[in-house]
Amino acid sequence: MPSSRNIAPPGDRAPLAFVYDRCTSRGVRARDELDMRLTGCHTYADGMGWVLASRWVDLGAEAMRTERPQLAVLLDAMRKERGRREVLCLVHTWGRLATDDTHRQLLQRRIVEAGGWTCTTFGESDHHSARAALVDRLA
């Protein structure tokens, strides 16, 4: 469940990272792997000097759908913050959004439309390319 305890005061202009993951399995091993990925996201954000908004995780069947409840909540929170500071969705790997490229790109587009961009803990990003594509479509 999201919490705002990590959101920095309004004067802090460091980018605000919204951590997202998904987990279809309910086993102990899957939960341990999820915890390791989330810890990796937190560590990466700290290293980049980003402020953590919170983390959102879709579980079970919801993690496989196009419409994901926790991702929708994340996007709403991102829209509320986008005018105050730079916002981004941090995932461990691109596969944490979706393993199918078309599905992943659709979700990345939603993040861009919410005012943010997406980054992985391996330094991969759509920061400039996704925004440019959106601006080209709107022009």
SSE pattern = EHEHEHEH
Strand arrangement in the largest pleated sheet: 2-1-3-4
First and last CA, distance: 38 Å
Radius of gyration: 14 Å
The number of strands is: 4
Chain oligomer state: single chain
State the helix count. Answer: 4
Describe this protein's structure:
With 139 residues, the chain is α/β, with parallel strands linked by helices. Helices cover 41% and strands 19% of the residues. It contains 4 helices and 4 strands. A 4-stranded parallel beta sheet has the order 2-1-3-4, sandwiched between helices. The relative contact order is 0.17. Mean pLDDT is 88; it is low at 1-11.
Short description:
The protein has helices spanning 28-48, 69-81, 101-113, 129-138; strands at 16-23, 51-59, 87-91, 116-120.
Blueprint of the fold:
Blueprint: E1 16-23, H1 28-48, E2 51-59, H2 69-81, E3 87-91, H3 101-113, E4 116-120, H4 129-138
Parallel strand pairs: 1-2, 1-3, 3-4
